[in-house]
Design brief:
Helix content is 29%, strand content 30%. Strands 1-2-3-6-4-5 form a 6-stranded mixed β-sheet, with helices on one face. It is globular.
Length: 126
């Protein structure tokens, strides 16, 4: 079974030793993705902008692996403040509302203080 590694071009991938996504057979595992704008290497202040950036990075990685957002079967959301849940809900619903993957949301600390959300997905195309 062929394994394909996908990079977003983030310098963090080489430094830390991970791939943005890994395709293994009918599965695509997308690593936790924060809201960085990788073109400018900036992090927006607003959590909804961070969520949109993360989702765009995820969609790009899925596409490079031959998958679509509609193939997502599992989503995990990590937020640094419980108050963000009601704010990002409509952003997430705009992407996943009809897809309805199994999902989890945890309130936790993230790697740096400017990170407010991290999203991880698994996609299946059988």
């Amino acid at each position: 079974m062929t394994r394909k590694l996908i990079s977003s071009g983030s310098p963090f991938e080489a430094t830390v030793g991970y791939s943005r996504a890994v395709v293994q057979g009918d599965w695509c595992f997308v690593a936790g993705t924060t809201g960085y704008d990788y073109a400018s290497m900036t992090m927006p202040e607003d959590v909804t902008d961070q969520a949109r950036n993360a989702l765009a990075t995820i969609a790009k990685a899925l596409g490079e692996g031959g998958f679509a957002v509609t193939d997502v079967v599992r989503a995990s959301y990590y937020i640094s403040d419980a108050a963000y849940w009601s704010v990002i809900g409509p952003v997430l619903g705009g992407v996943f509302g009809d897809i309805r993957p199994a999902a989890t949301c945890l309130v936790t600390g993230l790697v740096t203080p400017e990170m407010k959300i991290e999203i991880e997905v698994t996609a299946y195309k059988g």
